[in-house]
Design goal:
Elements: H1 2-7, H2 11-22, H3 29-45, H4 56-67, H5 72-91, H6 120-128, H7 138-148, H8 152-156, E1 163-164, E2 169-172, E3 175-176, E4 185-186, E5 195-198, H9 201-210, H10 228-242, H11 249-262, H12 267-274, H13 279-285, H14 287-306
Antiparallel strand pairs: 1-2, 2-5, 3-4
Helix pairs in contact: 2-3, 6-10, 7-11, 12-13
Length: 309
Amino acid sequence: MKAKRRKEQMFHEYFKEWVNLYKVGAIRSITLQKYYVVEQKLQELAPNLKLKELDRYSYQQLLNDYALTHEKQTTMDFHHHLKGAILDAVDEGVLTQNPTRKIIIKGKAPRPKKAKFLNQFEVQALLKELNLTEEINWDWFILLVVKTGLRFSEALALTPLDFDFSKQKIDINKTWNYKKTTGSFQPTKNESSNRKIQIDWQLAMQFSQLIKAKEPDKPIFVKSRVFNSTINNRLGVLCTRANIPIITVHSLRHTHASLLLFAGVSIASVANRLGHSSMTTTQETYLHIIQELENQDNDKIIRHLSMLM
């Protein structure tokens, strides 16, 4: 009877109940918000689609409708959010077949991509434009992210207590929820994001002076509500002055990783430094760089072997 009653339920209602049952309290609030957005979009696109009517045809039509206004990757993300609930409906016997099987992901033409990272010479040009005053400002924030590869929310959450200047390390153990009006500390993205990052002696000396009078358990960069656009706008000004591609603060993280990879640092070390849950994430994100390095290695191998008699 329960399965029969479920079949008459609207798909968006079932998805909402599924999110409340399996996701609330189990995932970070920022991730949970994505499920809520999907639920709203589902209700908008298919307000009258019943669970019993969900088959490959109706599901493909749903994805096609979504893809009209979204890029292919965004459509893929939308599909993955829905798929978990659908597979559970199959397991429960509410659906007799998996409607997501052999689905086709479409999407509108992607927008021109901004530069994902800077090369070493561009980074040096950017750093020359920084206005590193005696007081903490956003230029210091930019320098820190360039040299550590921290996520935006991780850098915002840093307090004086997180710095160990004797060992030249920063302890990453929390993030700052900047999307809320008041702002607050929250856990890191995942367990592997809790890490200690080695910093160079120059950065250690600079920050030891900058934060010595700061409250030990208060964020060093946050004075009022912070917007991602504030730092990106400042970064855009600096990039323009330096005559280099305009990038975002998240691209500074990619820049940090790419510089390390080109310097010969192992993928495992880069993954640990970035707080990736596995090396696979690092390999997939920086595949183009890794392939370029492999080509360089192949040239070195051939040159070395050709010298053997």
